[in-house]
């Protein structure tokens, strides 16, 4: 009898972990559709919601890899801001070259995080919190005299289909890497346990360094879409992006401790859920403080329901 109860409990937890985020997204969409009188699903609001998805989902893809190995990255907003400035500068000469420059800048900033995390064994959240202030300071210093404009030709690329194609390319490439290459296996193995990963042939330090470089490069690419959308960059560009990414991934069911239970669907479901909340809450709760309160409650509920207490460990 006891074995049956334990088996049923394990099956329920497994089902909740696998399908809970999707059910949560559907439930939140239905709930706020009712509360807003159907406004949230009107074409105009769906279009506005979609415009927020592109940058967040692309940047979340890189952080997803970081979190899979058990790390965190609080510098993503600052990386996006600084890479966007570099894109704006280079776009005055060539847009394709500007894309390469922003990706390279993002990769360099990711390498900065990865180097200090791996070389000096400093916890990832400490390293990235420090680099967050460093990169943000550079953004504000550069934009002291005013916003940094991009080439006027960049604005012609602000088309939904174009940004959708770029986002899908990033997701498809990341999906292939995640499911069909040794890299994906190594990431999950390291998140589950570095010691065991070493015995399976992984190189945890090198892999973690590459993960931070890749995460920065992906966010650098996201800066291209960010500039296309806004046209010029101020010192506050990308502010709070790291918080949005973390909340989105957790809403999508991403385990805080990473490992084998991470699912690629965490990126897509989590980002969509977050964007629905961001667009819906102001319609239902006009007061900003109430919106923050509701967000916090939802976030805590999701963490409480999806967190894996057995494998939870200190973030590396």
Topology at a glance:
Layout: H1 2-35, H2 43-68, H3 76-91, H4 95-119, H5 124-142, E1 148-149, H6 160-180, H7 182-192, H8 194-199, H9 204-230, E2 232-233, H10 241-251, H11 265-284, H12 288-306
Antiparallel strand pairs: 1-2
**Model regions low in confidence, pLDDT < 50 over at least 5 residues:** none
How many β-strand stretches?
A: 2
Termini separation: 40 Å
Helical region count? 12
- Element-by-element helix/strand order: HHHHHEHHHHEHHH
Summarize the amount of helix as a percent range.
over 70%
| Whole-angstrom Rg | 20 Å
Decide which structural class fits the backbone: mainly alpha
Mean pLDDT across all residues, rounded?
Answer: 88
What proportion of the residues form beta strands (DSSP E)?
Answer: under 5%
Which strand order do you get reading across the main beta sheet? 1-2
Largest sheet: 2 strands, antiparallel
* Overall 3D shape: globular
């Amino acid at each position: 009898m006891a074995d049956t109860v334990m088996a049923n409990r394990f099956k329920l937890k497994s089902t909740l972990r696998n399908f809970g985020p999707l059910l949560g997204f559907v439930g939140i969409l239905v709930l706020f559709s009712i509360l807003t009188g159907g406004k949230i699903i009107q074409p105009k609001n769906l279009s506005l919601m979609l415009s927020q998805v592109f940058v967040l989902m692309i940047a979340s893809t890189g952080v997803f890899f970081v979190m899979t190995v058990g790390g965190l990255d609080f510098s993503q907003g600052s990386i996006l801001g600084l890479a966007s400035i570099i894109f704006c500068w280079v776009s005055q000469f060539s847009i394709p070259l500007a894309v390469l420059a922003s990706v390279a800048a993002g990769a360099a900033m990711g390498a900065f995080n990865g180097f200090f995390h791996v070389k000096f064994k400093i916890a990832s959240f400490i390293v990235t919190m420090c680099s967050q202030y460093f990169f943000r300071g550079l953004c504000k210093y550069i934009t002291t005299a005013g916003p940094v404009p991009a080439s006027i030709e960049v604005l012609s690329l602000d088309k939904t289909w174009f940004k959708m194609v770029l986002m899908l390319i990033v997701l498809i490439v990341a999906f292939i890497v995640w499911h069909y290459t040794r890299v994906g296996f190594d990431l999950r193995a390291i998140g589950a346990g570095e010691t065991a990963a070493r015995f399976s042939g992984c190189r945890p330090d090198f892999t973690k360094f590459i993960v931070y470089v890749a995460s920065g490069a992906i966010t650098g690419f996201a800066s291209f879409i960010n500039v296309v959308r806004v046209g010029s960059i101020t010192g506050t560009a990308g502010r709070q992006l790291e918080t949005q990414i973390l909340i989105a991934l957790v809403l999508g069911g991403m385990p805080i401790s990473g490992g084998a239970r991470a699912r690629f669907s965490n990126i897509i479901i989590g980002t969509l859920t977050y964007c629905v909340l961001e667009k819906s809450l102001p319609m239902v709760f006009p007061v900003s403080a109430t919106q923050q309160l509701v967000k916090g409650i939802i976030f805590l509920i999701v963490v409480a329901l999806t967190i894996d207490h057995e494998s939870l460990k200190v973030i590396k």
